[in-house]
Amino acid sequence: MAIKNNTIGKPIFPITVIFHEDGEIYTFNSGNEMEYDLEWFNSKDKDVTVKDNKGRLVNLKIEALNIVTFELCNEHI
After folding, report:
1. Quick count: other Cβ atoms within 10 Å of Cβ 54?
2. DSSP 29
3. What 3-state class would DSSP assign to 71?
4. Is the pTM of this model over 0.90?
5. Which residues pair with 48 in a beta bridge?
6. Sign, Cα dihedral of 27, 33, 35, 40
7. H or E element: which one contains 31?
8. Measured between alpha carbons, how far is 52 from 68 in angstroms, rounded to an integer?
9. What local confidence, expressed as pLDDT, does residue 73 receive?
């Protein structure tokens, strides 16, 4: 999936995913990396925080290796 980094109102790479349960932190430099490593993921269903390069909260949903939702959370738009 091609994602532009310079679009206002869109998350900017790298994207950081923090899993609070075990303290794991992952950093992704592209949509392809996120799709591969997080093949089934929903930031709203997990005890996680997803942030972009500017520290803004991101809503991220991946289903079957495809990004379904990739946007800034409402408070950042």
Report:
1. 9
2. S
3. strand
4. no
5. 19
6. negative
7. helix 31-37
8. 17
9. 92
